[in-house]
């Protein structure tokens, strides 16, 4: 795996962010994106409590981010059949498509840096 300097890493991130804001899509906060990536890139189950602990942020902050993400249909809440007090956070096709496209933007940004 290639190693990037801090400047290159920030430039990769900058390039992906710029492309993201140019596209006609939602403008997610860093917290929303971190939660979404955690849901899609780590094995389920995902709950507010678990996401709060994994990310080291308060449960109300996770809930607010999930409100936005579920409103965009990137995730959905489902009652846990084993624990009626718990809600599991599930992935959606629309969320998968969003992150796939986001991943392409990051890849393009990496390629731009490595080709330079």
Task: Describe, in plain words, how this protein is organized in 3D.
The protein has 116 residues and is α+β, with helices and mostly antiparallel strands. It has one domain: Arc Repressor Mutant, subunit A, CATH 1.10.10. The protein is 63% helix and 13% strand. The protein has 5 helices and 2 strands; from the N terminus they run H-H-H-H-E-E-H. Strands 1-2 form a two-stranded antiparallel sheet. Strand 1 and strand 2 form a beta hairpin. Helix 1 crosses helix 5 (93-115), helix 2 (30-41) packs across helix 4 and helix 3 (48-55) packs across helix 4 (59-71).
Keywords:
about 120 residues, 2 strands, two-stranded antiparallel sheet, alpha+beta, Arc Repressor Mutant, subunit A, about 65% helix
| Unreliable stretches covering 5 or more consecutive residues | none
- Strand order, sheet with most strands: 1-2
Q: In sequence order, what are the helices and strands, one letter per element?
A: HHHHEEH
CATH class: Mainly Alpha
**Chain oligomer state:** single chain
Quick structural summary:
The chain is α+β, with helices and mostly antiparallel strands. The chain has five helices and two strands.
Sequence-ordered SSE layout with sheet pairings:
Blueprint: H1 6-22, H2 30-41, H3 48-55, H4 59-71, E1 75-80, E2 83-91, H5 93-115
Antiparallel strand pairs: 1-2
């Amino acid at each position: 795996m290639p190693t990037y300097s801090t400047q290159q890493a920030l430039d990769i991130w900058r390039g992906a962010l710029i492309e993201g804001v140019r596209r006609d899509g939602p403008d997610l906060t860093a917290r929303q994106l971190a939660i979404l990536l955690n849901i899609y890139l780590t094995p389920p189950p995902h709950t507010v409590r678990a996401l709060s602990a994994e990310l080291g942020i308060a449960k109300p902050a996770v809930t607010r981010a999930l409100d936005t993400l579920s409103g965009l249909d990137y995730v959905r809440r489902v009652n846990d059949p084993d624990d009626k007090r718990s809600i599991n956070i599930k992935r959606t096709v629309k969320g998968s498509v969003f992150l796939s496209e986001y991943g392409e933007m990051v890849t393009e940004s990496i390629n731009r840096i490595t080709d330079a």
